[in-house]
Structure formats: structure tokens, C-alpha cells
Design brief:
This protein has 146 residues and is α+β, with helices and mostly antiparallel strands. The protein has four helices and three strands, in the order αβββααα. Strand 2 and strand 3 form a beta hairpin.
């Protein structure tokens, strides 16, 4: 279902403002919706024994509750939530980019360390045992974190 929020907002702004209430007419034939002393509308009412009496009353109370002020407040909440969702989406995109960058940097460092260890393994005369063992320990630790 697509809701034209701009149209709903324009209709709510053009409608009678103030608190809307409903009350049953004394003869029991209609529920009246009012804003202060101004009549907004009426809905059918049924005798108390009618199975539809509760539905007609609920309809009238719902119409009164869905006043322009209520609709405008709901639309403002929807817009605020949408704004928060857009901001959250931007944060998530930024964090995803950061994670990707860190992964690439991590892979480059592992590759460089591997190259360095290869040099030590290939050239026995230049290798010092403590450096070589430290490098192997770092590689083992890096592999265990994957």
C-alpha cells in the first residue's frame, strides 16, 4: 500500500484543528464528532442491543482520535524515523568501507611479513634466530585469528 504522505499532510493542515471528541446524540441515532463547538461529522449509531452498536461506537471514537493534530504528529514521527534510518545507513556504509580498508591493510601487512620471513629463510647468513622466531610467532598468531 502506498500512502501519499504529502496529500495526507495537506488534508490534515486544511481540516479543522483542535481536539476532536465524539459523543452520542441523545436520541441514540448518531455519534457526533466535534472540535470544540464545531461539528465535524456524525456516524450511525445503533441501539445498545444491536450487535453493531460497539462497531459504530468504535468507528466514531476512531475518527475523533484520528484528528488532524494526531495525523500531523504521526507524519512528523514517520519523517523523523526516516531521517534516522538514512543517517544510520550512511554510518553503516562508512563502517563497511572502513572494515574493507582495514582488511586490505591487514592482508598487505601479512604479505609483507611473509616476504620478510622468506628473505630470512632464503639467506641463512643474514638471519638472526630471535628475529626469525618472532616473525614466525606473529604469522602463527595472525593465521589463528582468521
Amino acid at each position: 500500500m502506498t500512502i501519499d504522505k504529502q496529500e495526507i499532510k495537506a488534508l490534515a493542515e486544511a481540516a479543522t484543528g483542535g481536539e476532536w471528541t465524539c459523543s452520542e446524540k441523545h436520541d441514540g441515532r448518531f455519534w457526533h464528532i466535534r472540535a470544540g463547538n464545531q461539528a465535524i461529522g456524525a456516524t450511525h449509531a445503533a441501539g445498545r442491543k444491536s450487535p453493531m452498536a460497539g462497531v459504530f461506537e468504535a468507528n466514531a471514537k476512531f475518527i475523533a482520535a484520528a484528528s488532524p493534530a494526531t495525523v500531523l504528529a504521526l507524519l512528523a514521527e514517520i519523517e523523523e524515523d526516516a531521517m534516522h534510518m538514512r543517517a544510520f545507513g550512511e554510518v553503516m556504509r562508512s563502517q563497511t568501507e572502513q572494515v574493507d580498508q582495514l582488511k586490505a591493510e591487514n592482508e598487505a601487512l601479512r604479505s609483507a611479513l611473509g616476504d620478510l620471513l622468506s628473505l630470512y629463510e632464503d639467506d641463512e647468513g643474514c638471519r638472526s634466530l630471535p628475529q626469525y622466531l618472532a616473525g614466525i610467532a606473529v604469522m602463527d598468531k595472525a593465521v589463528s585469528h582468521d
